[in-house]
Design goal:
Elements: H1 5-23, H2 34-43, H3 49-57, H4 70-77, H5 88-94, H6 99-134
Length: about 140
Amino acid sequence: MLRYLPFLLVLALWIYSFIDCLNTPEEEVRGLPKVVWVIVILLFGEVLVGPIAWLVASKVGRGPTRGVTPSEWHREQRPQYVAPDDNPEFLNSLSTEPAPSKNVKDEALLKDWEADLRRREEELRRREAGEESES
């Protein structure tokens, strides 16, 4: 099993380089066009020249956008939550519609539901009364 390890490592590097080349945007590739890099990786993959050349020379170096380390970057990217009592936008949204109009709307909706409920109960009673008289 140990004798297959070098072959598997070469294959893994070959596959990684190929997928990385395909997923890299065209504007981040330097040296050669992306299509040429794919061909180089595929043709010279068995001798590791293509994949190693891709990993070493092909990408434009980009530093981290913000924090130096990944943990600093994640700390800066964390959303800052604000309690509702401290959030002025939330407090302003409560006062946009006066309370009496909300109550009026709710009362009107409740009256409509009650009227609909009474109408349905009355229809149900008529049906039950009609079925009893038929029997």
